[in-house]
């Protein structure tokens, strides 16, 4: 009863939600809200079979544009990341409206012909160039793309994902150009960026299973480690049908921990994830322990974001897969969102 | 070497030990000169270095900088995107604001692209330290302050900072504190760093940045990138090597520094004559000893070296003493100088003391070199002393008298040459030949001094004898008798006085010309300018919206929105572009034309034809005159305008092109104003109108309103303050010269003790001898004054007619302030008589028996 009243109240307090989210228009920027990000993660292999993980993120906080690029070289056990911060100025950092075209210095993500996404980023790991072709249509999380983060009137965002894209491209180091291929995940979220007061951070998982399905899980975490009422998820079936996952159906437990030698933060380093409604029970484990980013020069946030492997059962059958996990709020008070 | 040591001991060390005070005087002379040079050099260097450092901190590590006639439009930055592959770049918005926390201090406002700064400029955040708090810096309206600045004003993180910026009152919030390094050191640490958008809003510069600094990766050719950038930039924008801004900054206040340097050198020159004077006296005094030594087989080289060592020792001691004095003097000089610079040239300029190393070195070199030069002639003179005849005193005078013919001829030749040089054009904007002419006049003065002394003695002989009796007769005899010594004293004093008289005349001419200019150019009844706090100069500008507000105030007849900004010609030479409403100019006048035409008619014609007026410094610097074309880089590209007239202007020495406001608006698209001139309706008093203007615009804009009378007074006050240093230095030069006279007279009195004794023995009274020496001092002063008036006239003519117009492009109507000149000359005469008091007493107190028994 109380919940219903609360929901009603929020419905009134909510600024009239954008009538509907349409693409490719809504892959573009939404300057009417203060915080927005475009998040690419993926798993790649080269011709020799060595595997890599990448993360390329473009943030916009009002006029300020930030970007992170992280590269995980699994076989060499190397993790490298770069960050950029600029004011939104033409030729320096920008996010166009109406279409996907975000850039920061010479890193960018743009829509190419036929709805493909073209990515470029460079760092000490090399110059990455990727073409991502969506395998599935964009998925709207929450209720038609409105993803609640908390009970407050501004505590929600619009959240869209393309949960599976095939990736093709290369990493150039000096004169050597290594062809790469694999699978990527695209998230685009825009909103107030306000972290609910009760939350200490969040854990985010993007699982891509070998059977062609994906799962996004989002735990808004209290300081005692428990999930708030606004934790949720979305399951995307092989054919692209999206099914919301209620947190009550989810069992998430940490099975290992890792302490960062850089920030001294203690992060979970393996999980068991079980979602009863879709018959999933898997173990998720980082491909490399140290995939922590200390972004003092940009967002100022210290977080862990890394490539993981998935192993377990789905609908009674053994299944493998890859995942990306994002863990925030473990390194002191540096949580994204508290500043806005 | 033992032989030489003996020579040295006989000629130099012995006498110096016996007469330490006398040895000390030239040391003091050099010390004062060296101190002045060190202090002035230090003050000048502090100014240049402070400007350079500020420019350097802002330019950071950049290799190239993109600038434009009206800044760089933000849209144009897109064209630099290709640079990310080979380097990075950072735009910057800069300006000034006034702190409205009661201090009225001026601060630099720098708007940056925070993230780009690491690669281009150094900026170290001290607080806050946590990521979340740092993220708050990204909020618009937050600023970063250097720690020292924040603590001085009691600002903490989260404190509101009230400001007057861009002509309006506003406030920003302290978001973080910066270490006083890199960018935070610009403007001496009185700086407010914020994001480019906030700065743009504060300063009224939205849509534009002032510059974009480009840093290239190692190994990338700056030349190649520069031409690639130039190819991509739209018209009106250009790309330059980053060092140029620092150079231009160093050029600021050039006129002022130049003025100081000239005076510092003058003081040293006087000191140099004192050394020459002292060594000459030594040579004269020790002629018998020299002759004896020579006849005993001492070589000329040894004699020369002995006197050279004396001169250099005096120079070295003086230099050492002067360096110590210079350190003290430098602090005073710096305070005066930096006050002038920030009130006249750049309100946000913070002059901090530069290192003492270079000035100390420069002063040491100057002191050493000048004492070497000073010692050269007397030491050579010493080598010419023949062994036998010179054992008797008095032979010098004959030697010198024989030379007066060639001396006069050489002096005349110098003067003719000086006249010829004064007609030559400047080299690279610097009046080399003008200074050459000054040097030649100095040379002629030195040549002619002995002749003047003889002539002075000869021409006054009868008159002195009649008025002062035996004492007068003795005085002329003394004066003409020690020609060498007196000639040097006369030269030193004449030179110091001549320079002083010339400076007095020049400054008076400048002041009078500026005063008339102020009257003819300040035609409005009131001026409205942005509230500038404690600064003497205008800080920031006013938004264009203020013009209709001002026009609507009852009692306002017309408003002339005035705008000045930095600009450049086709080859990148910096100049000033001014914009004024020519319709108001046509009504009220205000740009006094050099050729005497009515500026109102010219302004009207210029407005109709799209022509411009140029200032006198512009005309001189660019060799342009009425009817020529003036070239100007505008945001729409290079434009040329016909020059309708050249007007007198002392506002700056770079040169100004004055456009009609409508033409300026069309080309620059900039409707902001630097100040506004207000013409009052007939019968409305300025005070009354000022109140009405405050009532009308006060709530919306932060302005200061100055009446015509106040502004005129202000201009002259600034002028006087600028030249206050000049006056102090003039005084020092004269004091040093008077010291020289005292030295010469004391020396001669002591030397002639035997003659005095003889005179006493022959019946002359103490009083007569004392008076004679005093009268001799008067003669020295008098001859020096006559020589100084002649030389001073030449110096003044060169300063007013050649050096000033060639250096700064300003011409002055010569004006001879008889009263002040006479006062200065009489002061010197009096001082020289006073200088005769001590030697007079020595002479009078000579005990005949004791002195004669020395024989």
The total of helices of chain B stands at: 29
Strand content of chain B: 15-25%
The gross shape of chain B turns out to be elongated
User: Greatest interface and its residue counts?
Assistant: A-B, 31 and 30 residues
Secondary structure tally: strands of chain A: 23
Helix content of chain A: under 10%
Low-confidence stretches of chain B: 393-400
* Shape category of chain A: globular
**Ends distance of chain A:** 32 Å
Low-confidence stretches of chain A: 1-17
Helix content of chain B: 55-70%
First CA to last CA of chain B: what distance? 32 Å
Structural class of chain B: alpha+beta
Nearest-angstrom radius of gyration of chain A? 19 Å
Question: Average pLDDT value of chain B?
Answer: 80
User: What is the topology, as strand order, of the major beta sheet of chain B?
Assistant: 17-18-16-19-15-14-20-13-21
Number of helices of chain A: 1
- Report the major sheet of chain A: 13 strands, antiparallel
What is the N-to-C order of secondary-structure elements of chain A (H for helix, E for strand)?
Answer: HEEEEEEEEEEEEEEEEEEEEEEE
Task: Please give a quick description of this structure.
The complex is a heterodimer of chains A (340) and B (855). By secondary structure, chain A is mostly beta strands. Chain A has one helix and 23 strands.
Structural account:
The complex is a heterodimer of chains A (340) and B (855). Chain A has 1 helix and 23 strands. Chain A has one helix at 2-13; strands at 35-46, 51-61, 64-73, 78-87, 93-95, 101-104, 107-111, 117-123, 126-134, 139-140, 146-148, 156-173, 176-191, 201-209, 214-221, 232-236, 242-246, 250-259, 266-275, 280-286, 292-294, 302-314, 317-327. In chain A, strands 1, 2, 3, 4, 5, 6, 7, 8, 9, 10, 11, 12 and 13 form a 13-stranded antiparallel beta sheet that branches. In chain A, 49% of the residues are buried. Chain B is of the alpha+beta class and 855 residues long. Chain B is 59% helix and 15% strand. Chain B is built from 29 helices and 21 strands. In chain B, strand 17 and strand 18 (637-647) form a beta hairpin. In chain B, helix 2 packs across helix 11 (300-345) and helix 16 crosses helix 26 (766-808). Mean pLDDT of chain B is 80; it is low at 393-400. The A-B interface holds A 61-64, 66, 84-87, 89-93, 105-106, 295-302, 332-335, 338-340 and B 74-75, 77-81, 84-85, 88-89, 91, 113-116, 118, 130-136, 138-140, 195-197.
């Amino acid at each position: 009863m109380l919940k219903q009243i609360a929901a009603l109240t929020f419905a009134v307090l909510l600024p009239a939600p954008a009538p509907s989210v349409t693409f490719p228009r809504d892959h573009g920027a939404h300057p009417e809200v203060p915080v927005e990000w475009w998040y690419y993660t993926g798993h790649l292999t080269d011709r020799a079979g060595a595997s890599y993980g990448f993360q390329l993120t473009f943030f916009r906080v009002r006029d300020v544009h930030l970007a992170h690029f992280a590269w995980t070289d699994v076989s060499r056990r190397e993790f490298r990341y770069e960050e950029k911060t600029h004011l939104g100025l033409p030729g320096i950092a920008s996010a166009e409206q109406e279409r996907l075209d975000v850039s920061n210095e010479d890193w960018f993500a743009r829509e190419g012909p036929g709805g493909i996404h073209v990515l470029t980023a460079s760092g000490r790991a090399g110059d990455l160039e990727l073409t991502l072709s969506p395998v599935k249509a964009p998925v709207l999380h929450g209720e038609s793309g409105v993803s609640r983060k908390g009970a407050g009137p501004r505590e929600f965002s619009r959240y869209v994902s393309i949960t599976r894209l095939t990736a093709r491209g290369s990493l150039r180091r000096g004169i050597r150009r290594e062809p790469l291929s694999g699978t990527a995940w695209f998230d685009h979220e825009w909103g107030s960026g306000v972290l609910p007061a009760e939350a200490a951070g969040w854990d985010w998982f993007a699982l891509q299973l070998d059977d062609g399905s994906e799962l996004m899980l989002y735990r808004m975490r209290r300081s005692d480690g428990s999930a708030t009422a606004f934790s949720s998820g979305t399951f995307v079936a092989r054919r692209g049908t999206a099914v919301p996952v209620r947190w009550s159906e989810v069992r998430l437990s940490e099975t290992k921990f890792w302490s960062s030698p850089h920030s001294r933060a203690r992060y979970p380093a393996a999980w068991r994830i079980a979602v009863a409604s879709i018959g999933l029970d898997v173990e998720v484990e980082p491909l490399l322990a140290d995939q922590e980013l200390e972004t003092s020069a940009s967002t100022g946030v210290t977080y862990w974001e890394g490539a993981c492997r998935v192993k377990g059962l789905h609908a009674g059958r053994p299944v493998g897969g890859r995942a990306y996990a994002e863990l925030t709020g473990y390194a002191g008070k540096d949580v994204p969102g508290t500043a806005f | 070497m033992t032989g030489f040591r003996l020579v040295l001991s006989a000629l130099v060390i012995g006498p110096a030990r016996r007469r330490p005070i006398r040895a000390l005087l030239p040391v003091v002379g050099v010390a004062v000169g060296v101190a002045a040079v060190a202090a002035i050099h230090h003050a000048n260097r502090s100014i240049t270095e402070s400007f350079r450092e500020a420019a350097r901190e802002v330019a950071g590590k950049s290799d190239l900088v993109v600038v434009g006639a009206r800044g760089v439009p933000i849209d144009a930055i897109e064209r630099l995107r290709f640079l990310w592959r080979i380097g990075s770049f950072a735009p910057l918005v800069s300006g000034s604001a006034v702190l409205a926390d009661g201090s009225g201090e001026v601060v630099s406002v720098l708007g940056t692209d925070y993230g780009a700064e690491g690669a281009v400029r150094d900026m170290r955040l001290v607080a806050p330290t946590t990521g979340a708090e740092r993220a708050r810096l990204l909020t618009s309206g937050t600023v970063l302050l250097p720690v020292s600045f924040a603590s001085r004003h009691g600002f903490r993180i989260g404190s509101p900072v009230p400001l007057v910026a861009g002509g309006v009152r506003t406030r920003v919030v302290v978001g973080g504190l910066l270490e006083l390094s890199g960018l935070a050191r610009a403007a001496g640490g009185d700086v407010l760093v914020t994001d480019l958008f906030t700065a743009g809003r504060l300063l009224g510069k939205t849509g534009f940045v002032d510059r974009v600094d480009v840093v290239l990766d190692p190994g990338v050719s700056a030349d190649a990138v520069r031409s690639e950038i130039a190819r991509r930039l739209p018209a009106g924008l250009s790309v330059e090597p980053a060092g140029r801004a620092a150079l231009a900054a160093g050029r600021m206040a050039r006129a002022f520094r130049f003025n100081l340097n000239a005076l510092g050198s003058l003081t040293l020159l006087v000191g140099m004559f004192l050394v020459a004077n002292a060594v000459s006296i030594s040579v004269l005094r020790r002629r018998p000893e020299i002759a004896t030594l020579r006849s005993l087989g001492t070589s000329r080289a040894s004699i020369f070296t002995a006197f050279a060592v004396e001169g250099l020792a005096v120079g070295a001691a003086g230099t050492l003493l002067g360096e110590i004095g210079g350190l003290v003097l430098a602090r005073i000089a710096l305070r005066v100088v930096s006050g002038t610079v920030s009130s006249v040239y750049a309100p946000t300029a913070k002059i901090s003391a530069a290192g003492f190393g270079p000035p100390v070195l420069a002063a040491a070199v100057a002191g050493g070199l000048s004492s070497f030069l000073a010692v050269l002639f007397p030491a050579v003179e010493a080598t010419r002393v023949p062994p036998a005849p010179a054992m008797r005193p008095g032979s010098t005078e004959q030697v010198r008298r024989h030379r007066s013919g060639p001396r006069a001829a050489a002096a005349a030749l110098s003067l003719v040459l000086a006249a010829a040089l004064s007609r030559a054009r400047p080299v690279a904007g610097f009046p080399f030949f003008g200074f050459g002419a000054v040097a030649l006049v100095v040379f002629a003065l030195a040549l002619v001094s002995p002749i003047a002394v003889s002539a002075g003695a000869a021409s006054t002989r009868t008159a002195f004898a009649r008025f002062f009796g035996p004492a007068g007769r003795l005085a002329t005899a003394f004066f003409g008798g020690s020609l060498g010594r007196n000639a040097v004293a006369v030269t030193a004093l004449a030179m110091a006085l001549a320079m002083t008289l010339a400076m007095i005349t020049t400054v008076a001419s400048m002041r009078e010309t500026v005063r008339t200019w102020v009257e003819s150019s300040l035609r409005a009844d009131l001026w409205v300018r942005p509230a500038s706090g404690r600064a003497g100069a205008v800080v920031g500008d006013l938004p264009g919206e203020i013009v209709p507000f001002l026009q609507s105030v009852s009692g306002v007849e017309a408003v002339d929105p005035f705008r000045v900004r930095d600009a450049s010609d086709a080859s990148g030479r910096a100049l000033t572009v001014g914009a004024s409403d020519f319709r108001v100019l046509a009504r009220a006048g205000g740009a006094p034309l050099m050729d005497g035409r009515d500026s109102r008619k010219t302004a009207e014609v210029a407005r109709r034809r799209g022509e411009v007026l140029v200032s006198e410094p512009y005309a001189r610097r660019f060799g342009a005159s009425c009817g020529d074309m003036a070239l100007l880089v505008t945001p729409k590209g290079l434009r040329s305008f016909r020059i309708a007239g050249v007007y007198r202007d002392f506002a700056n020495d770079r040169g100004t092109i004055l456009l009609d406001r409508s033409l300026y608006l069309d080309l620059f698209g900039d409707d902001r104003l630097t100040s506004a001139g207000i013409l009052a309706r007939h019968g409305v008093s300025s005070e009354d109108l000022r109140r009405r203007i405050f009532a009308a615009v006060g709530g919306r804009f932060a302005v200061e309103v100055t009446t015509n009378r106040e502004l005129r007074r202000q201009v002259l006050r600034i002028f006087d303050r600028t030249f206050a240093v000049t006056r102090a230095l003039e005084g020092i030069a004269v004091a040093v010269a008077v010291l020289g006279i005292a030295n010469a007279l004391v020396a001669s009195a002591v030397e002639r003790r035997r003659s005095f004794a003889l005179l006493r023995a022959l019946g002359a009274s103490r009083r007569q001898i004392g008076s004679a020496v005093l009268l001799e001092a008067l003669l020295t002063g008098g001859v020096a004054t006559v020589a100084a008036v002649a030389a001073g006239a030449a110096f003044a003519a060169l300063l007013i007619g050649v050096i000033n117009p060639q250096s700064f492009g300003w011409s002055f109507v010569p004006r001879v302030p008889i009263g002040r000149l006479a006062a200065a000359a009489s002061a010197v005469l009096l001082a020289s008589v006073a200088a005769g008091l001590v030697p007079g007493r020595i002479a009078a107190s000579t005990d005949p028996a004791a002195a004669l028994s020395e024989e």
